[in-house]
Amino acid sequence: MSEDELRPEDIDVYRRLLEAPSAADAATGGPGPGTELSAESVNRLLAHRLLQEDGPHRYEAVSPSLAAAELTASLQVQVHRLMRRIDTARRDLRPLGPLYEEHQRRRQADTTTELLADGEAVRERLADLSLRVQHSVLTAHPTLGSGPTLRAALDLDRDLLDRGVVYRTVLPHTARRQREALAHVRHLGDLGAQVRTAVVIPGRMILLDSAYALVPAGKDGGGALFRDPAVVGFLELIFEHIWDHAKPVDGAGYAADVFEDIELTILRHLERGRSDEFMSRRLGISTRTLRRYLAGICEKLDVDTRFQLGMAAARLDLFGDGDDPDSTG
């Protein structure tokens, strides 16, 4: 607690002065234990404009509303002054925006790929591009970010959807079992986005207006922004393949077909001798969660070991046509 902050004993002195202003004599000048503390309380109340002098060592309690108005009057003047400065700065700088954008277009005209050094550069570039999007946004995310990251992304997404942009996104099935991620998915749906989930998403991609494609690059969360129509078109084909094999989110979290997708993918990984670490990384879940899935599959098929599990799966033709579990289908 700072020296200027009101304390419980200050409130007690204020209450006494409300009831009997003459009590100020004992509070500030009289002898006895606690005199110094009472005097400090009166000084703090004076500093907060909650008391006014009513004679030597006599004070009268003041309305907190009046005290607040007196304390903040000068601050409000400063706020109005700052707001005028902000408006002036924006007005003066606004004509320079088109000049800067034209310079950026000329500077980037010689290349169809722009490398972004780190996550901050990616976020800034996406925020800039989002302002220009007119038709569509397609995104695929193998993992989800933290709560603050999701909330920041939602602000951009809300602006896009408010402008009538078609927004489709594919997230991993595991987003359905994370409370914050599921809330994010539902919020996107409420805003008008189309959201699906897939058991495996091979890589992150963000496609804007069929003109820009952003994919990860580098070690520090950086990215590569492509403008080459051939590259962007190819990535759109990949997205549409992921989208066609993904399942819509109806708000209910995990459904039976989602569990089936995950379980069949685990079985196909087992058939190929993949380790627990590999499988959990591909599915975006912890090894502990993976082992719970394995235990559930063993219970369904009434087996005890992974070898027996593989035999039972083959006998029941659960491997199907042998699709690669690393694919998005």
What is the general shape?
Answer: flat
* Share of residues in helices: 40-55%
Mean pLDDT: 81
How many whole angstroms does the radius of gyration measure? 32 Å
Q: How would you describe this protein?
A:
Helix content is 55%, strand content 13%. With 329 residues, it is α+β, with helices and mostly antiparallel strands. Strands 3-9-8-7-4-5-6-10 form an 8-stranded mixed beta sheet, sandwiched between helices. Strands 1-2 form a two-stranded antiparallel sheet. Helix 7 (147-162) runs parallel beside helix 8, helix 11 (276-283) crosses helix 12 (287-301) and helix 12 (287-301) packs across helix 13.
Per-chain topology:
Elements: H1 8-19, H2 24-28, H3 35-47, E1 51-53, E2 59-61, H4 64-93, H5 96-108, E3 113-116, H6 119-130, E4 136-140, H7 147-162, E5 166-172, H8 179-191, E6 194-198, E7 205-208, E8 212-216, E9 223-226, H9 229-245, E10 247-248, H10 256-271, H11 276-283, H12 287-301, H13 306-315
Parallel strand pairs: 4-5, 5-6
Antiparallel strand pairs: 1-2, 3-9, 4-7, 6-10, 7-8, 8-9
Helix pairs in contact: 1-3, 7-8, 11-12, 12-13
Provide a concise account of the structure shown.
This protein is an alpha+beta fold. The chain is built from 13 helices and ten strands.
Provide key terms for this protein:
alpha+beta, two-stranded antiparallel ribbon
